């Protein structure tokens, strides 16, 4: 009897040890697949992260390991992916990937197609709503207007990425659970997992159709280059090459620059700028608005200040776009505080003299001017991001009429 008890205890310990090793093996497998999936994603936001988090919740249940899977995938892969612009966006992204882990726990007790479909589609919807809201909150007054219209613009910009994330989540969920079912692991739940995987394949077809409709109005062309950090403006240089300004982190001095794009690759042409935005070419030079100053960049990449902050009639608040007429006279927009105050349009002569064309005081219809282009020798077209109006500005006296 004593020997029998020892055999039972020994067998139980051996079984627990095998289970522990299996749990660690599953965790490391999910972590490896997730990190590689983010590192080599075929399209932006098409990664297995949400599907693996869903499976982690399904496999590990209510334990802490389930939430550690997506958090670890994000933390490790972010070592070489672009960092977030601020803490709010980071918290939003990490928090969103806890949702599929919690959904996976629900699937342990509910195997219907509706439950599986909802859990596969929910993470991308939550990610779209939460992260775009966080982007608008953190960048309002910079990238987006501080208004309901600005919030809607932010969500509109995120629609193509939502479509791809939705399709990717549905596809990877079907694949992950189909592989699990085919492996025969924990055979008691084999049939439920297979039903879920088959249901997921059906959802992919629906998701592709829905995604095509959702993204048809905002379909993105094949990019010339990827990986630019907060790109702002683009121009073709005198040498025929394409140049783009990159802001880097908003409000962080010294991490912006101008990139030159050739054969699908972007390389630094000028670095060490603050928050470069507008870019225009005239002759052999390019001109850039950089926070509160205007710069000239020659063909060799040498930078010179055309107009420092002190040269403006009023302290610049948010220098944004820039254009040049046929004589090389520059016109610069200052978007102001994005509250309808302190916006302005300036004229910069070839000698660097800065004069006011119009501002929110002299021309009340101007609220927050951004994009500029010369309409003729005597007029400018100016887009107002706060009012949504396109205004035609008379250069001589700053009067504006809505187009």
The percentage helix is 40-55%
- Following the backbone from N to C, one meets helices and strands in this order, namely HHHHHHHHEEEEEEEEEEEEEEEE
User: How big a fraction of the residues is strand?
Assistant: 15-25%
Q: Please give the oligomerization state of what you see.
A: single chain
Helical stretch count?
A: 8
Shape category: elongated
Q: Calculate the terminal CA-CA distance, rounded to whole Å.
A: 97 Å
Strand order of the largest sheet: 1-2-3-4
Features of the shown structure:
4-stranded antiparallel sheet, single chain, 403 residues, alpha+beta
Verbal overview:
This protein is α+β, with helices and mostly antiparallel strands and 403 residues long. The protein is built from eight helices and 16 strands. It has helices at 2-39, 49-60, 64-77, 87-96, 98-107, 113-139, 148-183, 190-215, and strands at 231-236, 242-246, 256-262, 265-273, 276-282, 285-290, 293-297, 303-307, 319-324, 330-334, 344-348, 354-359, 369-374, 379-384, 390-394, 400-402. The strands form four sheets. A four-stranded antiparallel sheet has the order 1-2-3-4, with no helix packed on it. Strands 5-6-7-8 form a four-stranded antiparallel sheet, with no helix packed on it. A hairpin with a 4-residue loop joins β13 (369-374) and β14 (379-384). The model is unreliable at 4-16 and 186-218 (pLDDT under 50).
